[in-house]
């Protein structure tokens, strides 16, 4: 375990960024966001960033490769840049867990090498949440905000930051960082262990006061797939959906993308960009659109997170309870309203049978 005075984070960030690119959450006009650290940039006090940290491993737009056409030849140009070492500081427990959900998708066969390379080159430094918001429900999804996962985990307590490097990557990075930062010092169980235990206790108490948002239900089990899919509630729930895709773009676990080629005149540039199942042209094929109405598209998003993903992934929901969709949807529709409505319908059916 390591300890750092909170008023010395500038020197700590400098030491980390001398070893690899360092991204931290900073305040901006539109809320907190991750930025590449440089001298003078301060760590945001916001609970979480507007956009999740998934961009570091699965960027919103990436140039996969270029092709250059000559009369009789085609040259394929490797444009990849995902071999660069970097560290992300300040990732919250919900967002750290989202990486293991993305891993299930991108690291299963066929492995997405772009994602895999970034995962291998990134170090995640998480920070426990001191004041979980009323929109947070990670604890109902088996995530411990008081003890976040990551290559290293940090706790703020009193006027210090306590750091526990956990993985080989995390330990190696902090061993080197400590050489360049005199304020980052090792500390034992008596001092650090007790402080971290006290920090965890405070967070657990705060979490205990949070309203339980996510319904405790078996309504989304695989056996109920047909019943949930055919629920008349979808029409009502999706009625006002604008199809703007905001919920999918802010979501740390949404992983749909589109691939497009752009004509450069002498070849093409191939890009991968995030896509949204809420868009009318999502997965559109020459034969047509498989989900022609917003009701079908809306249902797909929630069925995927609540039923299809858990059915294929050991019961793990495709949601980490970050609450971003609760805050950002312009019509105030979100996974909590949907899951509660469906759970209530399932339980009234059970009572009536
Ligand atoms: S953010 Fe709200 S309105 Fe926009 S697509 Fe998602 S559910 Fe629909
Ligand atoms: S569905 Fe909403 S609460 Fe769940 S992870 Fe996505 S943005 Fe966060």
What do these coordinates show?
The chain is of the alpha+beta class and 353 residues long. It has two domains: 2-209, no CATH class; 222-352, no CATH class. 35% of the residues lie in helices and 21% in strands. It has eleven helices and twelve strands. It has helices spanning 9-17, 93-106, 113-121, 168-180, 189-209, 225-229, 233-238, 246-250, 294-312, 324-328, 335-352, and strands spanning 2-5, 21-28, 31-36, 61-69, 74-78, 86-91, 122-127, 152-157, 160-165, 185-186, 257-263, 267-274. Strand 11 and strand 12 (267-274) form a beta hairpin. The radius of gyration is 22 Å and the shape is flat. The termini are far apart. One iron/sulfur cluster binds at residues 250-253, 305, 319-325, 335.
Compact description:
This protein is α+β, with helices and mostly antiparallel strands and 353 residues long.
What's the pLDDT, averaged over the residues? Answer: 95
Q: What is the number of strand segments?
A: 12
Query: Main β-sheet, in a few words?
Result: 8 strands, mixed
Proportion of strand residues: 15-25%
Name the ligand types: iron/sulfur cluster
The count of domains is: 2
Spatial order of the strands in the main sheet?
Answer: 3-2-6-7-8-9-1-10
Structural classification: alpha+beta
Shape: flat
**Number of helical runs?**
11
Helix content: 25-40%
Rg estimate, integer Å: 22 Å
State the end-to-end distance: 56 Å
Order of helices and strands: EHEEEEEHHEEEHEHHHHEEHHH
Return residue spans where pLDDT drops below 50 for at least 5 consecutive residues.
Answer: none
């Amino acid at each position: 375990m390591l300890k750092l005075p909170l008023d010395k984070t500038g020197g700590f960030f400098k030491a980390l960024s001398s070893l690899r690119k360092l991204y931290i959450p900073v305040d901006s006009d539109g809320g907190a966001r991750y930025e590449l650290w440089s001298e003078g940039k301060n760590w945001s006090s916001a609970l979480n960033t507007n956009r999740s940290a998934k961009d570091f491993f699965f960027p919103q737009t990436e140039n996969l490769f270029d092709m250059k056409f000559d009369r009789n030849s085609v040259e394929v140009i490797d444009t990849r840049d995902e071999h660069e070492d970097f560290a992300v500081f300040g990732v919250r427990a919900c967002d750290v867990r989202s990486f293991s959900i993305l891993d299930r998708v991108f690291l299963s066969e066929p492995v997405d090498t772009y994602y895999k390379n970034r995962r291998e080159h990134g170090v995640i430094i998480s920070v426990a949440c001191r004041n979980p918001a009323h929109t947070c429900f990670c604890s109902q999804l088996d995530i411990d905000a008081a003890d976040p996962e990551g290559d290293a985990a940090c706790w703020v307590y009193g006027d210090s930051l306590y750091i526990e490097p956990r993985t080989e990557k995390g330990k190696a990075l902090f061993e080197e960082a400590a050489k360049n930062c005199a304020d980052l010092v090792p500390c034992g169980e008596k001092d650090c262990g007790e402080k971290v235990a006290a920090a965890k206790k405070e967070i657990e108490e705060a979490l205990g006061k949070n309203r339980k948002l996510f319904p405790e239900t078996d309504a989304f089990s695989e056996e109920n797939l047909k019943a949930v899919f055919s629920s008349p509630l979808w029409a009502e729930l999706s009625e006002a959906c604008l199809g703007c895709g905001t919920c999918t773009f802010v979501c740390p676990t949404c992983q749909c993308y589109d691939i497009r080629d752009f004509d450069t005149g002498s070849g093409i540039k191939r890009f991968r960009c995030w896509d949204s199942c809420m868009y009318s042209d999502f997965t559109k094929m020459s034969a047509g659109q498989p989900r022609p109405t917003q009701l079908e598209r809306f249902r797909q998003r929630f069925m995927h997170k609540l039923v299809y993903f858990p059915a294929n992934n050991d019961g793990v929901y495709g949601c980490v309870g970050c609450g971003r969709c609760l805050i950002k949807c312009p019509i105030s529709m979100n996974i909590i309203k949907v899951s509660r409505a469906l759970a209530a319908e399932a339980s009234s059916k059970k009572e009536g049978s």
